[in-house]
Structure formats: structure tokens, C-alpha cells
Specification:
Layout (H helix, E strand, L loop, with lengths): L3 E4 L2 E3 L5 E7 L8 E7 L6 E7 L3 E4 L7 E6 L4 E6 L8 E9 L2 E4 L3 E5 L2
Length: 115
């Protein structure tokens, strides 16, 4: 079992920044994949950014150049730095972990971008 604790959501104006955090209850070195998805109202959950063991990183075209995924291995934590936020980034953001072949999800944190 893996517990994920998310923090960092909130409301910002367009152009603002937020940083999301997700702490895992297992060592990050044992995790196969770790990252972030989001789900806007009425839409399917979509990948935002992902780190695969070995360091490979991928992110959605819609966030390239604005969002950065990173980890703090000592804290077993993955971050999502979100800059130049747009109204279309409004969604519930979920931390995701693939561990021993099973997917785990955080509780979700709301990000609202509005003037």
C-alpha cells in the first residue's frame, strides 16, 4: 500500500504560479512512475507530467514551458511547479504513483485560475 498526501492547490489569477506537492509513504526509489494528472469538470482525466524510474520525464503539450515536474528524493516527494497559469488549467490535480504494478492516486487538490 502507498499513501499519497497532496498539498499546494488554490486560486490564482491568470499568469500566476502555484506549486503542488505530493509525499509518498514509500521510498521514491522503489516507485516505477510518479507524476500528476488533472481532471476538469466534464472532461476526462489527463496526464500533466510524469517521471519514470531512470529519470525520463514527459509532460503534456499544453503545459510545456510552463509546468515543471521535479522530485526531492530525501522527502519521497514529487512537485509540480506551475507558472503562467491559464484559466484552462483549472482542474482537480491528482498525484499518481505506479508501485509494484499497481496505480495509486492522491486525494486530489483543486487549482482554480480566474480573474
Amino acid at each position: 500500500q502507498v499513501q499519497l498526501v497532496e498539498s499546494g492547490g488554490g486560486s490564482v489569477q491568470p499568469g500566476g504560479s502555484l506549486r503542488l506537492s505530493c509525499e509518498a509513504s514509500v521510498t521514491i526509489f522503489s516507485i516505477n512512475r510518479m507524476g500528476w494528472y488533472r481532471q476538469a469538470p466534464g472532461k476526462a482525466r489527463e496526464l500533466v507530467a510524469l517521471i519514470i524510474s531512470g529519470g525520463f520525464r514527459t509532460d503534456a503539450d499544453s503545459v510545456k514551458g510552463r509546468f515543471t515536474i521535479s522530485t526531492d528524493n530525501a522527502k519521497n516527494t514529487v512537485y509540480l511547479q506551475m507558472n503562467s497559469l491559464k484559466p484552462e488549467d483549472t482542474a482537480v490535480y491528482y498525484c499518481y504513483v505506479l508501485y509494484n504494478g499497481r496505480a495509486y492516486w492522491g486525494q486530489g487538490t483543486q487549482v482554480t485560475v480566474s480573474s
